[in-house]
Amino acid sequence: MSWAFIDARWDDYVTAFESFDVAKVAAYGDTEVDRLMNADGIIHSKSKLEGTIRNARTLLDMEREHGSIHAYQTSFADYDALRKDTKKRFAFLGDLSTYYWLFRTGAPVPDLEEWMKGQDRDHPRMREMVRRHTP
Questions:
Q1: How far, CA to CA in Å, does 79 sit from each of 35, 52, 53, 95, 115?
Q2: Which of 85, 95, 115, 129 fits a disulfide with 110 by CB distance 3.0 to 4.6 angstroms?
Q3: Span 68-83, pLDDT tens digits
Q4: Which pLDDT tens digit goes with each residue over 44-56?
Q5: Which pLDDT band, with edges at 50, 70 and 90, does 129 fall under?
Q6: CA neighbor of 87 nearest in space, from 58, 64, 65
Q7: Pair 5, 43: CB distance under 8 Å
């Protein structure tokens, strides 16, 4: 699955997942998964759809456990510990997506160029997105 595919169909995802309202998505069950499997414009991977629902539930669990997502993110000694815990908690969240989620939500992350040195390959799309969203 490519970021370009998702980006090109982002409006379809927003519609299918009810604007990504975390509480609504976390409450999805089999009926909503069936609806999503038939929704136009999104990837019809049951495991990815169920992973998205699980991730919404994880966000709610984090808020209950830590008081807020930000409190969770700042409760770790360093980025590496946060990255490892985040990857364990969320479905389908690799290094790239973990970095980007933390970056976009204001969590402490390493400088992009330093982080990229530890990656197997260059991520021009990541560079573009970080540049676009850096104040």
A1: 37, 23, 25, 11, 10
A2: 115
A3: 999 999 999 999 999 9
A4: 999 999 999 999 9
A5: confident
A6: 58
A7: yes
pLDDT at 1 over 70: no
Task: Name the token pair of 130.
Answer: 């970080």
3-state secondary structure the chain: CCHHHHHHCHHHHHHHCHHHCHHHHHCCCHHHHHHHHCCCCCCCCHHHHHHHHHHHHHHHHHHHHHCCHHHHHCCCCCHHHHHHHHHHHCCCCCHHHHHHHHHHCCCCCCCHHHHHHCCCCCCHHHHHHHHHHCC
Place of tokens 């089999």: 30
Q: How far is CA 15 from CA 79, 96, 113, in A?
A: 33, 25, 34
The pLDDT value given to residue 95? 87
Count other C-beta atoms under 10 Å from residue 128's C-beta.
11
Other beta carbons less than 10 A from residue 123's beta carbon:
19
List all residues 6 or more positions away from 78 whose beta carbon is below 8 Å from its beta carbon: none
pLDDT, tens digit, 9 for 90 and up, residues 17-26: 999 999 999 9
